[in-house]
Amino acid sequence: MNRIERGDWSRFVAVLTREKPQWTVGKVAAAAEALRRCARAQDRDNVARCNDERWTEEASDRVDARTRQVLAELGFEGVLQRDPRGAALRLVLPSGMTNDCGQTGYCVPTA
């Protein structure tokens, strides 16, 4: 993880901490890591879908279902994007805070 990616990750963890003040530090860290894993899986699925390499609808459905399950367990809504050039997963935060150009949510870092 380079310096810029570390900054993105630190800001993301800080946002989760502000959004869920009742969570312990351990829960915030675990939630951030679970969301990062989901965002990475979504990103890999988007690239495979775009390149049509080893991509199947069933595998994509499993990735989506797992991501939605994690979001529900953590009490967040999410926006999934199918374009591999952008953030694959955005959180819709209770505060309304966004960091993407379309102001649809807060991008989950993948690095």
What does this structure look like?
The protein has 111 residues and is mainly α. The protein has one domain (3-107). Helix content is 56%, strand content 9%. The chain is built from 3 helices and 3 strands; from the N terminus they run H-H-H-E-E-E. It has helices at 3-19, 25-51, 57-74, and strands at residues 77-80, 89-92, 106-107. Strands 1-2-3 form a 3-stranded antiparallel beta sheet. Strand 1 and strand 2 (89-92) form a beta hairpin. Helix 2 (25-51) runs antiparallel to helix 3. The chain is globular. The mean pLDDT is 92.
The shape, in one word, is globular
Derived structural class: mainly alpha
Order of helices and strands: HHHEEE
Largest sheet: 3 strands, antiparallel
Proportion in β-strands: 5-15%
Mean pLDDT: 92
The helix tally amounts to 3
Could you tell me how far the N terminus lies from the C terminus, measured between alpha carbons in angstroms?
A: 6 Å
Low-confidence stretches: none
Largest beta sheet: strand ordering: 1-2-3
Count of folded domains: 1
Q: What is the gyration radius calculated from CA atoms? A: 14 Å
Helical content band: 55-70%
The count of DSSP E runs of length 2 or more, i.e. the number of strands, is 3
